[in-house]
Write a structure and sequence with these properties.
With 350 residues, the chain is an all-alpha fold. It is 77% helix and 0% strand. The protein folds into two domains: 20-156, no CATH class; 166-339.
Protein backbone atom coordinates (compact mmCIF):
# COMPACT_ATOMS: atom_id res chain seq x y z
CA UNK A 1 0.00 0.00 0.00
CA UNK A 2 2.82 2.37 0.89
CA UNK A 3 4.53 1.72 -2.46
CA UNK A 4 1.30 2.54 -4.32
CA UNK A 5 0.95 5.81 -2.42
CA UNK A 6 4.55 6.74 -3.18
CA UNK A 7 4.06 5.94 -6.88
CA UNK A 8 0.87 8.01 -7.05
CA UNK A 9 2.59 10.96 -5.39
CA UNK A 10 5.54 10.68 -7.79
CA UNK A 11 3.18 10.56 -10.79
CA UNK A 12 1.31 13.61 -9.47
CA UNK A 13 4.54 15.56 -9.00
CA UNK A 14 5.89 14.53 -12.41
CA UNK A 15 2.74 15.45 -14.33
CA UNK A 16 2.51 18.87 -12.70
CA UNK A 17 6.21 19.68 -13.12
CA UNK A 18 6.60 18.23 -16.62
CA UNK A 19 6.71 21.74 -18.11
CA UNK A 20 9.93 22.36 -16.16
CA UNK A 21 11.53 19.00 -16.99
CA UNK A 22 13.87 20.53 -19.63
CA UNK A 23 15.13 22.89 -16.94
CA UNK A 24 15.98 19.98 -14.62
CA UNK A 25 17.63 18.10 -17.49
CA UNK A 26 19.59 21.23 -18.34
CA UNK A 27 20.79 21.54 -14.75
CA UNK A 28 21.94 17.90 -14.74
CA UNK A 29 23.75 18.41 -18.04
CA UNK A 30 25.53 21.54 -16.84
CA UNK A 31 26.43 19.84 -13.56
CA UNK A 32 28.16 17.01 -15.42
CA UNK A 33 30.08 19.54 -17.53
CA UNK A 34 31.11 21.69 -14.55
CA UNK A 35 31.59 18.94 -11.96
CA UNK A 36 35.36 18.60 -12.28
CA UNK A 37 35.92 22.37 -12.24
CA UNK A 38 33.67 22.75 -9.21
CA UNK A 39 35.63 20.15 -7.20
CA UNK A 40 38.95 21.73 -8.20
CA UNK A 41 37.82 25.14 -6.99
CA UNK A 42 36.33 23.92 -3.71
CA UNK A 43 38.60 20.97 -2.80
CA UNK A 44 41.99 21.97 -4.21
CA UNK A 45 41.87 25.77 -4.03
CA UNK A 46 39.67 26.10 -0.98
CA UNK A 47 36.97 28.29 -2.50
CA UNK A 48 33.65 28.60 -0.70
CA UNK A 49 31.06 26.43 -2.38
CA UNK A 50 28.67 29.33 -2.86
CA UNK A 51 31.35 31.49 -4.54
CA UNK A 52 32.45 28.67 -6.85
CA UNK A 53 28.84 27.92 -7.75
CA UNK A 54 28.06 31.56 -8.52
CA UNK A 55 31.17 31.78 -10.70
CA UNK A 56 30.08 28.77 -12.74
CA UNK A 57 26.56 30.21 -13.01
CA UNK A 58 28.09 33.43 -14.35
CA UNK A 59 30.15 31.45 -16.88
CA UNK A 60 26.95 29.71 -17.99
CA UNK A 61 25.16 33.03 -18.46
CA UNK A 62 28.01 34.59 -20.44
CA UNK A 63 28.82 31.66 -22.72
CA UNK A 64 25.45 29.90 -23.01
CA UNK A 65 22.48 32.02 -22.00
CA UNK A 66 23.84 35.18 -23.64
CA UNK A 67 24.42 33.64 -27.09
CA UNK A 68 21.10 31.77 -26.82
CA UNK A 69 19.29 35.05 -26.10
CA UNK A 70 20.97 36.77 -29.05
CA UNK A 71 20.09 33.85 -31.32
CA UNK A 72 16.42 33.83 -30.32
CA UNK A 73 16.24 37.63 -30.46
CA UNK A 74 17.55 37.49 -34.03
CA UNK A 75 15.64 34.48 -35.35
CA UNK A 76 12.10 35.08 -34.06
CA UNK A 77 11.59 38.44 -35.88
CA UNK A 78 13.21 36.99 -39.01
CA UNK A 79 10.93 33.95 -39.09
CA UNK A 80 7.83 36.00 -38.24
CA UNK A 81 8.58 38.59 -40.92
CA UNK A 82 9.37 35.93 -43.52
CA UNK A 83 6.07 34.12 -42.93
CA UNK A 84 3.95 37.27 -42.78
CA UNK A 85 5.55 38.94 -45.82
CA UNK A 86 3.69 36.75 -48.29
CA UNK A 87 3.92 39.14 -51.25
CA UNK A 88 7.72 39.18 -51.27
CA UNK A 89 7.84 35.40 -51.04
CA UNK A 90 5.39 35.14 -53.95
CA UNK A 91 7.59 37.41 -56.07
CA UNK A 92 10.71 35.33 -55.40
CA UNK A 93 8.81 32.13 -56.07
CA UNK A 94 7.58 33.46 -59.43
CA UNK A 95 11.11 33.44 -60.83
CA UNK A 96 11.59 29.80 -59.82
CA UNK A 97 8.17 28.84 -61.19
CA UNK A 98 8.90 30.56 -64.51
CA UNK A 99 12.29 28.89 -64.84
CA UNK A 100 10.93 25.39 -64.25
CA UNK A 101 7.51 25.76 -65.92
CA UNK A 102 8.45 23.41 -68.79
CA UNK A 103 10.26 20.86 -66.63
CA UNK A 104 8.69 17.38 -66.94
CA UNK A 105 9.87 16.51 -63.41
CA UNK A 106 7.57 19.15 -61.86
CA UNK A 107 4.53 18.58 -64.05
CA UNK A 108 2.65 16.73 -61.30
CA UNK A 109 3.41 19.32 -58.61
CA UNK A 110 0.95 22.15 -58.00
CA UNK A 111 3.03 25.33 -58.28
CA UNK A 112 0.10 27.74 -58.52
CA UNK A 113 -0.15 30.93 -56.48
CA UNK A 114 -3.12 29.46 -54.63
CA UNK A 115 -1.10 26.43 -53.51
CA UNK A 116 1.81 28.59 -52.36
CA UNK A 117 -0.50 30.97 -50.48
CA UNK A 118 -2.11 28.03 -48.73
CA UNK A 119 1.32 26.74 -47.68
CA UNK A 120 2.24 30.18 -46.31
CA UNK A 121 -1.00 30.42 -44.37
CA UNK A 122 -0.38 27.01 -42.82
CA UNK A 123 3.14 28.12 -41.90
CA UNK A 124 1.77 31.30 -40.29
CA UNK A 125 -0.19 29.17 -37.85
CA UNK A 126 3.11 28.04 -36.32
CA UNK A 127 4.03 31.57 -35.19
CA UNK A 128 2.17 31.28 -31.82
CA UNK A 129 3.91 27.93 -31.25
CA UNK A 130 7.28 29.56 -31.97
CA UNK A 131 6.57 32.34 -29.45
CA UNK A 132 5.40 29.81 -26.85
CA UNK A 133 8.58 27.80 -27.38
CA UNK A 134 10.67 30.92 -26.82
CA UNK A 135 8.84 31.61 -23.55
CA UNK A 136 9.31 27.99 -22.50
CA UNK A 137 13.03 28.19 -23.21
CA UNK A 138 13.32 31.34 -21.08
CA UNK A 139 11.50 29.82 -18.11
CA UNK A 140 13.46 26.57 -18.24
CA UNK A 141 16.78 28.40 -18.49
CA UNK A 142 15.95 30.14 -15.20
CA UNK A 143 14.94 26.79 -13.67
CA UNK A 144 18.18 25.20 -14.88
CA UNK A 145 20.35 27.94 -13.36
CA UNK A 146 18.41 27.83 -10.07
CA UNK A 147 18.68 24.04 -9.74
CA UNK A 148 22.30 24.02 -10.91
CA UNK A 149 23.34 26.37 -8.10
CA UNK A 150 22.05 24.03 -5.39
CA UNK A 151 23.48 20.97 -7.15
CA UNK A 152 26.94 22.56 -7.17
CA UNK A 153 26.72 23.78 -3.58
CA UNK A 154 25.64 20.34 -2.32
CA UNK A 155 27.64 18.29 -4.82
CA UNK A 156 29.31 15.89 -2.33
CA UNK A 157 26.11 15.16 -0.43
CA UNK A 158 24.18 14.83 -3.68
CA UNK A 159 26.58 12.28 -5.15
CA UNK A 160 26.80 10.23 -1.96
CA UNK A 161 23.00 10.07 -1.75
CA UNK A 162 22.78 9.12 -5.41
CA UNK A 163 25.47 6.47 -4.99
CA UNK A 164 23.55 4.84 -2.14
CA UNK A 165 20.23 5.04 -4.00
CA UNK A 166 21.39 3.22 -7.15
CA UNK A 167 20.64 -0.51 -6.62
CA UNK A 168 23.62 -1.82 -8.60
CA UNK A 169 27.04 -3.22 -7.84
CA UNK A 170 30.11 -0.98 -7.66
CA UNK A 171 31.18 -2.14 -11.10
CA UNK A 172 27.82 -1.23 -12.62
CA UNK A 173 27.74 2.11 -10.83
CA UNK A 174 31.16 2.97 -12.21
CA UNK A 175 30.18 1.91 -15.72
CA UNK A 176 26.89 3.78 -15.47
CA UNK A 177 28.67 7.00 -14.51
CA UNK A 178 31.32 6.68 -17.20
CA UNK A 179 28.75 6.01 -19.91
CA UNK A 180 26.49 8.82 -18.69
CA UNK A 181 29.39 11.28 -18.51
CA UNK A 182 30.48 10.43 -22.06
CA UNK A 183 26.90 10.56 -23.31
CA UNK A 184 26.25 14.02 -21.85
CA UNK A 185 29.45 15.45 -23.27
CA UNK A 186 28.77 13.91 -26.68
CA UNK A 187 25.27 15.33 -26.93
CA UNK A 188 25.63 18.62 -25.08
CA UNK A 189 28.96 19.59 -26.67
CA UNK A 190 29.33 17.47 -29.81
CA UNK A 191 26.00 18.15 -31.52
CA UNK A 192 26.13 21.96 -31.03
CA UNK A 193 29.77 22.07 -32.22
CA UNK A 194 28.85 20.18 -35.37
CA UNK A 195 25.84 22.40 -36.07
CA UNK A 196 27.70 25.64 -35.32
CA UNK A 197 30.68 24.81 -37.54
CA UNK A 198 28.51 23.82 -40.48
CA UNK A 199 26.32 26.88 -39.99
CA UNK A 200 29.28 29.28 -39.96
CA UNK A 201 30.87 27.70 -43.04
CA UNK A 202 27.52 27.75 -44.84
CA UNK A 203 26.88 31.41 -43.95
CA UNK A 204 30.24 32.37 -45.45
CA UNK A 205 29.29 30.52 -48.63
CA UNK A 206 25.90 32.22 -48.87
CA UNK A 207 27.55 35.61 -48.45
CA UNK A 208 30.26 34.87 -51.02
CA UNK A 209 27.78 33.70 -53.66
CA UNK A 210 25.53 36.73 -53.24
CA UNK A 211 22.50 35.49 -51.34
CA UNK A 212 20.46 37.84 -49.16
CA UNK A 213 20.51 37.39 -45.39
CA UNK A 214 23.37 34.85 -45.19
CA UNK A 215 23.30 34.80 -41.37
CA UNK A 216 19.67 33.69 -41.31
CA UNK A 217 20.36 31.01 -43.92
CA UNK A 218 23.45 29.90 -41.98
CA UNK A 219 21.39 29.39 -38.82
CA UNK A 220 18.81 27.39 -40.79
CA UNK A 221 21.68 25.28 -42.15
CA UNK A 222 22.94 24.66 -38.61
CA UNK A 223 19.50 23.44 -37.56
CA UNK A 224 19.27 21.28 -40.69
CA UNK A 225 22.30 19.23 -39.60
CA UNK A 226 19.93 17.06 -37.56
CA UNK A 227 17.84 16.05 -40.62
CA UNK A 228 18.57 12.46 -41.67
CA UNK A 229 20.28 11.73 -45.01
CA UNK A 230 19.62 15.14 -46.58
CA UNK A 231 20.96 17.27 -43.73
CA UNK A 232 22.23 20.68 -44.82
CA UNK A 233 21.23 20.03 -48.44
CA UNK A 234 17.66 21.07 -47.62
CA UNK A 235 18.95 24.64 -47.29
CA UNK A 236 21.85 25.13 -49.70
CA UNK A 237 20.33 23.26 -52.68
CA UNK A 238 17.10 25.35 -52.74
CA UNK A 239 19.31 28.44 -52.36
CA UNK A 240 21.33 27.32 -55.39
CA UNK A 241 18.09 26.71 -57.34
CA UNK A 242 16.94 30.24 -56.47
CA UNK A 243 20.19 31.69 -57.83
CA UNK A 244 19.85 29.59 -60.97
CA UNK A 245 16.26 30.74 -61.54
CA UNK A 246 17.37 34.37 -61.25
CA UNK A 247 20.01 34.02 -63.96
CA UNK A 248 23.04 33.61 -61.67
CA UNK A 249 24.09 30.23 -63.05
CA UNK A 250 27.75 30.66 -62.07
CA UNK A 251 26.91 31.44 -58.44
CA UNK A 252 24.32 28.64 -58.40
CA UNK A 253 26.80 26.01 -59.56
CA UNK A 254 29.46 27.40 -57.23
CA UNK A 255 27.13 27.28 -54.21
CA UNK A 256 26.01 23.74 -55.00
CA UNK A 257 29.62 22.53 -55.26
CA UNK A 258 30.58 24.51 -52.15
CA UNK A 259 27.75 22.85 -50.22
CA UNK A 260 28.51 19.32 -51.37
CA UNK A 261 32.30 19.52 -51.01
CA UNK A 262 32.94 22.02 -48.20
CA UNK A 263 29.83 22.05 -46.01
CA UNK A 264 29.30 18.31 -46.40
CA UNK A 265 32.89 17.45 -45.53
CA UNK A 266 32.72 19.39 -42.24
CA UNK A 267 30.44 16.67 -40.84
CA UNK A 268 32.90 13.88 -41.64
CA UNK A 269 35.95 15.82 -40.45
CA UNK A 270 34.44 16.69 -37.07
CA UNK A 271 32.97 13.24 -36.48
CA UNK A 272 36.37 11.60 -36.92
CA UNK A 273 38.31 14.20 -34.89
CA UNK A 274 36.67 16.26 -32.13
CA UNK A 275 33.45 14.28 -31.73
CA UNK A 276 35.31 10.97 -31.62
CA UNK A 277 37.23 12.18 -28.56
CA UNK A 278 34.03 13.25 -26.82
CA UNK A 279 32.35 9.93 -27.56
CA UNK A 280 30.77 9.83 -30.98
CA UNK A 281 26.97 9.69 -31.08
CA UNK A 282 25.42 7.41 -33.68
CA UNK A 283 23.51 9.46 -36.32
CA UNK A 284 20.35 7.41 -35.73
CA UNK A 285 20.37 8.38 -32.05
CA UNK A 286 20.72 12.02 -33.05
CA UNK A 287 17.91 11.86 -35.62
CA UNK A 288 15.31 9.96 -33.60
CA UNK A 289 16.39 11.70 -30.40
CA UNK A 290 15.70 15.08 -31.98
CA UNK A 291 12.28 13.90 -33.19
CA UNK A 292 11.52 12.65 -29.68
CA UNK A 293 12.86 15.80 -28.05
CA UNK A 294 10.98 18.24 -30.29
CA UNK A 295 7.76 16.39 -29.55
CA UNK A 296 8.37 16.47 -25.79
CA UNK A 297 10.23 19.72 -25.14
CA UNK A 298 10.01 21.91 -28.24
CA UNK A 299 13.25 23.68 -29.18
CA UNK A 300 15.05 22.42 -26.09
CA UNK A 301 14.52 18.90 -27.39
CA UNK A 302 17.30 19.43 -29.94
CA UNK A 303 19.76 18.63 -27.14
CA UNK A 304 17.76 16.66 -24.59
CA UNK A 305 16.04 14.33 -27.05
CA UNK A 306 19.26 12.54 -28.09
CA UNK A 307 20.34 12.60 -24.44
CA UNK A 308 17.21 10.75 -23.30
CA UNK A 309 17.41 8.26 -26.16
CA UNK A 310 21.06 7.57 -25.34
CA UNK A 311 20.02 6.64 -21.80
CA UNK A 312 18.37 3.51 -23.19
CA UNK A 313 21.72 2.23 -24.43
CA UNK A 314 23.37 3.05 -21.12
CA UNK A 315 20.72 1.19 -19.13
CA UNK A 316 21.02 -1.81 -21.44
CA UNK A 317 24.77 -1.91 -20.79
CA UNK A 318 24.17 -1.75 -17.05
CA UNK A 319 21.59 -4.53 -17.30
CA UNK A 320 24.10 -6.64 -19.21
CA UNK A 321 26.70 -5.90 -16.55
CA UNK A 322 24.35 -6.94 -13.74
CA UNK A 323 22.65 -9.98 -15.24
CA UNK A 324 24.26 -10.91 -18.54
CA UNK A 325 27.93 -11.48 -17.68
CA UNK A 326 29.36 -14.45 -15.85
CA UNK A 327 32.57 -12.54 -15.09
CA UNK A 328 31.91 -8.80 -14.92
CA UNK A 329 34.47 -6.46 -16.35
CA UNK A 330 36.26 -4.73 -13.50
CA UNK A 331 36.41 -0.96 -13.49
CA UNK A 332 38.99 0.25 -11.03
CA UNK A 333 37.31 3.42 -9.77
CA UNK A 334 34.15 5.43 -10.04
CA UNK A 335 33.87 9.16 -10.51
CA UNK A 336 30.86 9.27 -8.23
CA UNK A 337 31.67 9.85 -4.59
CA UNK A 338 31.29 6.70 -2.54
CA UNK A 339 30.04 7.00 1.05
CA UNK A 340 32.71 7.51 3.69
CA UNK A 341 35.36 8.28 1.09
CA UNK A 342 37.10 11.52 0.14
CA UNK A 343 35.70 13.29 -2.92
CA UNK A 344 37.14 12.14 -6.22
CA UNK A 345 38.35 15.27 -7.90
CA UNK A 346 39.84 13.51 -10.90
CA UNK A 347 37.40 12.85 -13.77
CA UNK A 348 38.35 9.45 -15.11
CA UNK A 349 36.15 9.78 -18.18
CA UNK A 350 38.06 12.49 -19.95
Amino acid sequence: MLIIIILLICILIFTNLFYYLPGFLGAITLYVLFRKINFKLTEERGWKKSIASLLLILVTIVFLVGPLYLLINYMVPQVTEAINNKEEIMEKFDSIKTYFKDSPYLSNIDLSDTALMGALQRAAKFIPNILNSVAEVGVNVLVALFVLYFMLVSSKELEKTLYNAIPFSKTSKAELWQEFDMMVKSNAIGIPILAMCQGVVAALGYWFFGLENPIFLGILTAVATIIPILGTMVVYLPAAVFLLANGQSGNAIGLALYGIIIIGSIDNILRFTILKKLGDVHPLITVFGVLLGLNLFGMLGLIFGPLILSCVGVLLKVYSNEFGRSTPEIIQSTSLIEPNSPSNTTDTTE
